[in-house]
Design goal:
Elements (H helix, E strand, L loop, with lengths): L3 H10 L3 E3 L5 E3 L8 E7 L1 H14 L5 E3 L8 E3 L3 E5 L17 E8 L4 H21 L5 E7 L1 H6 L7 H11 L7 E5 L6 H38 L8 H17 L3 H23 L28 H9 L4 H18 L3 H21 L8 H20 L2 H6 L1 H21 L10 H12 L15 H8 L3 H21 L3 H17 L3 H18 L2 H17 L3 H12 L6 H16 L9 E4 H4 E9 L4 E3 L5 E8 L5 E13 L27 E3 L19 E7 L6 E8 L2 H4 L29 E9 L2 E8 L6 E12 L2 E5 L7 E5 L4 E6 L4 E2 L4 E8 L10 E5 L6 E2 L5 E5 L5 E6 L1 E4 L3 E5 L8 E8 L26 E3 L6 E10 L6 E9 L2 E10 L2 E10 L5 E10 L6 E5 L5 E4 L4 E10 L6 E12 L10 E10 L5 E8 L7 E2 L4 E9 L5 H6 L2 E4 L2 E11 L5 E4 L3 E7 L5 E10 L3 E4 L2 E8 L32 E2 L14 H9 ...
Parallel strand pairs: 3-6, 3-7, 7-8, 8-9, 10-21, 12-22, 24-35, 44-56, 45-57
Antiparallel strand pairs: 1-2, 4-5, 11-13, 11-15, 13-19, 14-18, 14-20, 16-17, 20-21, 20-22, 23-25, 25-32, 26-31, 26-34, 27-32, 28-29, 28-32, 30-31, 33-34, 34-35, 36-37, 37-41, 38-40, 38-42, 39-41, 42-43, 44-46, 46-51, 47-48, 48-50, 48-53, 49-51, 50-54, 52-57, 53-55
Amino acid sequence: MLCVQFLWILSEVQTSYIVSSVGHMCLSTVVMAKVLGVTCAGDQSLFTSLYTSLAQQLPKEPMEWRRSYGRAPKMIHLEANFVQFKEELLPKDGNKALLTFPFLHIYWTDCCDTEVYKASVKEDMQRWQNILRLHSSVDWLIVVVESDAKKKNKTNILPRTSIVDKIRNDFCNKQSDRCVVLSDPLKESSRSQESWSSFLTKLRTLLLMSFTKNLGRFEDDMRTLREKRTEPGWSFCDYFMVQEELAFVFEMLQQFEDALVQYDELDALFTQYVLNFGAGDGANWLGSFCAPVRSWNGLLLRRPIDMEKRELIQRGEASLLDLRSYLFSRQCTLLIFLQRPWEVTLRALELLHNCVQELRLLEVSVVPGALDCWVFLSCLEVLHRIEGCCDRSQLEANCSHTVGLWTYATEKLKSLGYLCGLVAENGPTSEDLNRTVDLLAGLGTERPETVNSMQSPYKKLKEALSSVEAFEKHYLELSHAAVEMYRAIGRMRSARLVGKSLAEFYMRKGDPERAEGFLEESLRLYVAEGWSLQVTHTRKQMAECQKLLRQTDDYLQTSALLAGDANLNQEERTHFCQEILSFASQPPGPSDQTVALSMAAFAQLRQLQFSPPGAVVHVGAALQLELRVRCLMPVAVHVGQLAATLHFSLEQGGARGRAGSSQRRPGQGPQGQGDGVVLFPQGSPLSGAGCSLTPALELYEMQDRSPSDSSLNSAGVVCKNVHLLLRRHDSNASLDTPTAGVLPAAVAVDDGAQMLRARDVTLQPGDNSILFTAPTGEPGSYTLRQLCGSVGRVQFVQSHIYPVVQYEVYSQEPQLTIEPLSDNLLAGIPQRVKFTIATGHYSIKKGDALQLSNTDSMPILHSSRCSATILSSTGEHMGERALSIQSSEKVTSISLPPTPPYHTLEFQLEVLCHIPPAPLKLDSERLTNGEVRHRSKSRSHADSAMIHIDQKVSIDCPWSIYSTLISLTFYVPFKAKHTLLSAGRRKYIQVCLQNVSDSNFHLADPVLVERQPTTTVELLSLNAKRQQLVCSQQSLFCLWEMRWAKDLPPCLQCEFSASFVPISALDPPAAFKTYRYEFQLDRVSTLYSVKAEICPASGDKHCRTGTLCGLEVSITRQAEPSETEGEEEESTEIEGLKTTKLMYEVVDNSSNWAVCGKSSGVVSMPVAPSATHRVQMEVMPLFAGHLPFPNIKVFKYLPHSAAQVIQPDTDSCLENDNLSLLDKGLDDQGDTASIRSRGSVHSVGSGEQQREQQRGLPMPRLEPFSPGQVFNWTQGRQVLVLPATDDHVMEVNVT
């Protein structure tokens, strides 16, 4: 298919590469392959004179190469192979080779004479054109070279353009650009340089266009050939040669990435056919690759092109290994050109594994060991090839890419050693020697490239198979090199795997001492990462090694682990278990000691249950522990004694008792499930073979309490096994990690020590239950530390138990507590309280009694039938005993029944807290210095506004010489307040009684009486019902009318009383209790009445919005003030008429009215009954409808000369909310408009007035009237206001 010239061109592709002085691989020179063929016709001597300049100038400038199918453009340098034009060089029909294809044809001429042109040049040019047309070649160019020297020799020449024009007219009618002129190319003038530049640009453009066009045609033909792969007769080898030719073209263009893509596509296509063959869909052409393998000489990467294997592929005689070897060698060459040598190693490892699988899929006959030889040689060949293009520093930095090949080569050499008998203890047999000879024969002769190399793969393999010593030498070299590389890159798993392979090799050689170290490292890694199957297999090897080395303790430990390993079958497990039992049953010698093994290999703790569940008992109490254990042995094992050591501590429990203990009880931790059960986690070190080397955290609560009052200062968490968590991972572990190589020390069992013991226990395979009785002789905290099971001469020890298992033995002092049976104790009614005596270590004897001090405010109610309940420490009911209660004036004595220690005595009593009468005047909330007054006894409850009373009871107990002071809090269930109401001259007193408790009461007989010595007022009850129900948070209002014959007294002292009883106490009937409330009323007479009238504008019957209306305010004196009231008012006398000054104010807080003009003023009222003062002003309604009247307020106007009167305490009476202040002094003017501002009653006005007052200027002041002194007739009245017009729009929404 390809001619001899193609082989010459291939020889140019063999570009050498060297390693620079800095260790980086680079190409020595960029050799431009002459892939673009160009034929030269016409004047050959002319072309020869220009060839050197043309060959040098053409590749200097890059060209942008745009390809089809959206591929990215690239910049390439073009270099042409100029040859003399011959018709034999033109492609024949069916020959589509790219490498021998001439992409451009150039005709050279320097003719400048018309006669010569017509005589010879035109005819020769015509002949050249006909030949090109005959072979369908349309890529041509005519170059006319002009020379000034030649023009001077010709006197009759035509102008310069005459010959060029003739040529264009004769040959380039439609393609005038195919004829170019090159002026004086051998000169260095600017005209010559410009002509050269134009010519080279044209030449590059035509070359690139022709190459792109023909390359596209070639790719289409190749694609068409690939699509015919399903047709009969299609050959992969033929297609391989076609696509490889495309790869060669890209490689010669320095497009190594595109060339590599072609080989990768061939690789993927062949792989897919092999996979299809394995699935039953085979192609006919694969039969040639199924031939038996006759040669296994490995890869050849020292040649850019392996022509021998290429010829085999071209002839269709290549085997699978030949095709794969040649294909990988080409990929390797291109990857090295791309400076990606590390990808070569990755692809090589994948290739070697795939070839082994492909030979099995194609069912190719292979001599045993032949594939191992091929893989071994290939691995070393790839490594040598990489070493040749990289320096040592690069190899060491990138050993992660090569270590896989070292390991694979080690495995194959080991396999060859086993096959040829080089690992056997007795050496190879004759059959092994014959097999070795056959394998060496398949290697053939050594290749010329490696004959002179002392470390060639061929020589290494031949030497390794020659003797046992040589094999061991090469195998150990490769193995140790692989281990060191894996350790250098941190791949410890792979290093341990190679080490395990070395251990197997040493065991086969009968050297268990060297194998032990590698097995221990591998086992430690597998256990740490939880590879159970690998752990089992390695332990079996370890047991064999330890048995040969006579390491009895270690062998027994490993046998125990294997006996409990579920990955082994029953027979193997029983064998290892019998090894332990046989050793345990042997009588010990004089120097023999007890062998301690790990409990994790023997049994697994499941759970521990305390009885009683709280794991807190008093001294001498019974405490049992039920331990559930899963025996891992395959047969029943008799345990002579199972014991658990206890650590005693006084940190918890002791004299402080249960109240001071902050210990986490069993069942309350993360592993607990309540009811005194402690669960042992499966992932703990107790779980055996698959456990982690890192122990679990042991966290404890730490509390720092004040020694004075035991208050908590700080709290924290402390870890008690930091020494286990922060150690080095490679350190020898304790017994909890049975693979660490350190066995536990035997536990000495002392009969006098504090331990949990169970004797003669037979553990069946699976779950077992063992019952222990815990010692409780001394108060303190007991912690389980170790667990030890003795089987003859063998002890199975668990030196650390997690989670922490503790129980507490306490010695408690007697305690007395009194607590109510309800949420709140209510005053005024009998309440039951519960007495609880925790006897602790004290025994209540006959005659012991509680002495309670009596108080008048809280008597103790008792009946003849009063009993006490006795409970055990576990809460079990032990019985009831009668109580004897005797009361005297100061002491109540309660005789206690005999009660043993650490029991509880409970009984109930009734107490009654009397409700004190409400104070005549509540304490002021603030003192004169501004501090809040603290009330000692009665104060409001923060949540429910209930008044509560603290009652303290002193109790003398028989077990103590000191008195115990108990405080009980009672809550008053009611809250009362009063209000003085007025209706003209008539007066009413309203009392509101609110039930602020959570109970419901019946109230009866509400009574209001005057508490003065002489009765001056008659209180007429207006309450219809005698008895009423008042539920929780409800109020009852009672009303009385005041009637008097003469004048009202200035001060009226009253007492309200009502009988109450809880609803729950009606059945059986209970006596009613009385609630009293005392209060005082001051200044109760009505001094003034205020009336107001609103008149519409003239001409209107009703007021309208937006229209001014008249407001007339009448202030009428109803009675003369009493002496006390007269002292409070400032009066003046003018012309025999005594008057007082009042200030009125009209405001509308609801914004219904707009007060126009002055809204406040000062008036003078005569001190005479029925004296009236009228004030008129204008108001404007802002809304339509029935509007309430504006608010009218009246204040006492006291001039600056008047003495200040202290504001009286109204004691729960209703007061006016807001007061208006004057902006300036009102002494000099009668009426003025006021600026309303909210403030203190004693405040005079604005900030300016306050500042003037600070300067010492006298200012008037205002004081409100007491409730009932001013009666407003317009309170609650409304006036009809109509809209401004009748025209309005009503919006109605209908849904």
